Structure formats: C-alpha cells, structure tokens
C-alpha cells in the first residue's frame, strides 16, 4: 500500500516538475499496486500519472 501512496505523490509531482519521469513512476507503481491489495489507490496513481504527464506535455 505504501507504493500506491508514493505513486500518488509522484503523480502529483508530475504536474509541476519532470512530468514524463514522475508520470511513468506513478504509472508503474500504480500497476504494481493494482495487482496487489490496494486496487483503488493503484488506479488513482495510474490516473494521476497519466494526467500529469499528458497535461504538462500538452501545455508546454
């Protein structure tokens, strides 16, 4: 479950700094978490990672 929280934090950081790196980290940690116990947190990490990377890429 701690990986999901780190993935969510990485997804949020992806909105502000190094979007591709932190977005990928969030997606990978989210995928690992989805296949473990915390499904909801994993999907949040995946969603934030994708949106953070795409939004920063789109606006810059």
Total number of domains: 1
Question: Mind describing the biggest β-sheet?
Answer: none
Kindly state the percentage of residues in helix.
Answer: over 70%
Give the terminus-to-terminus CA distance.
33 Å
- State the low-pLDDT regions, or none: none
Number of strands: 0
Determine the number of helices (DSSP H or I, runs of at least 4 residues). Answer: 3
* Quaternary structure state of the chains depicted: single chain
Q: Note the overall shape.
A: elongated
Can you give me a brief rundown of this structure?
By secondary structure, this protein is mostly helical. Helix content is 82%, strand content 0%. Helix 1 runs parallel beside helix 3 and helix 2 runs antiparallel to helix 3.
Strand-helix topology:
Blueprint: H1 2-13, H2 19-34, H3 39-59
Helix pairs in contact: 1-2, 1-3, 2-3
Characteristics of this structure?
3 helices, mainly alpha, C4-dicarboxylate ABC transporter, 0% strand
């Amino acid at each position: 479950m701690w990986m999901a929280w780190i993935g969510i934090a990485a997804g949020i950081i992806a909105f502000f700094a190094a979007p591709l790196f932190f977005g990928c980290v969030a997606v990978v940690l989210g995928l690992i978490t989805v296949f473990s116990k915390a499904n909801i947190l994993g999907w949040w990490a995946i969603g934030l990672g994708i949106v953070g990377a795409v939004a920063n890429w789109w606006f810059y």
